[in-house]
Amino acid sequence: MLKRNPRIANLSSGYLFPEISKRRAAWAKEHPSAKIISLGIGNTTEPLTPHIVEGLQGEVARLGTKEGYSGYGDETGLTELRAKIASVLYKGIVKPEEVYVSDGAKCDIGRIQYLFGSNVSVAVQDPAYPVYVDGSVMIGAAGPARADGTGYEGITYMPCTAANGFFPDLSAIPQNSLVYFCSPNNPTGAVATKAQLAELVSAVRAKGSILVFDSAYSAFIRDPSLPLSIFEIPGARECAIEVSSFSKPIGFTGVRLGWSIVPAELRFEDGTPVGKDWTRLMTTIFNGASNVAQKGGLASLDEKGLAETRELTDYYLENARVIRSALSGDNFKKAGVEIFGGDNAPYVWARFPGRKSWDVFDLLLNSCQVVCTPGSGFGPAGESFIRFSSFGHRADVIEACERLSKLSLS
Ligand code: PLP
Fold first, then answer.
1. Which of 213, 247, 349, 373 to mutate to test the pocket of ligand 1 (most atoms within 8 A of CB)?
2. Fewer Cβ atoms within 10 Å of its own Cβ: the N or the C terminal residue of the chain?
């Protein structure tokens, strides 16, 4: 019999969302007639938009013809799409050959972990999107879990709290490390300013480290002063990789399409361009994003597609406003609940002083039949917080908020 991979065995418990599903399913089994509404998982709910559907359908039709059929494509993506991402989303601050199209940002994060391997220390915002930490444990760059429940060995957790405006103390960044940073942030909804990102770039460079900047939610930024990409910051080309996604802006969570940017200037200690190894890795263990998905992505980047993207992201931002408004009610105010995020991001982050995240999760499930995400599942500094996701049908969000307004927190 084969031995279990000890690195995977190092993961302390199930992934956050399966645990939520387990509790939800157990409650539903006991209360079969109850209507549970989820403000929990960051999965999109609204249908694909017409012009983008046309892009997908056009490619399906083409593949059904003798003349139009094509098989495997370039592993790094359609030339046309790489050029469009560079010109439309990055306004030319990155070059098309620095854009690597993929099946999504999460998959790219896993491959980036494979690229750097086990001999790298890791720093993350705390709380953070779970893949940064769990993937690092799986590859052997971190783990096992510390006995005192404060996270994994080998991971530097940089607390992002209300007190520091959800921007961490960067002096904690270890020398020669891989630093994950997400803005707009999942789960806190915080968006870093240009000045903050300039500080981040300077700290990462001073430590000889590499930044993995996750901009999966940049399409939700409405404040024009906030940066959409790390490459708006001078010096980032020498120290950063950006991962991003079509999932949330155009509802491609199931279609699957994302990209990474690896700038030509980014190098390893021995002078090898990181892009050289990234190309080698992508062409070896990845076989290219779906051609159908890529044509859908392409449609999203022309005038009609951009208008649809704006409308869709506006829809979720309005949901976030509705959630914020419910959480500002007297019942929450009296309990001292503080709310953050949700204006340039699809997540609202709420602090319930004196309560544990999972206790609030159970309270909202039992009393309101509303599923949320316990902040502690995103890292030690998420304790006492709850993440509310704006991905949901408007009617459901309104109904969930009406129930929340009646919740007794005394
Ligand atoms: N990055 C962050 C911060 C996310 O929250 C998510 C999904 O929830 C992803 C990446 C995943 O993106 P994709 O669907 O492109 O894999």
1. 247
2. N
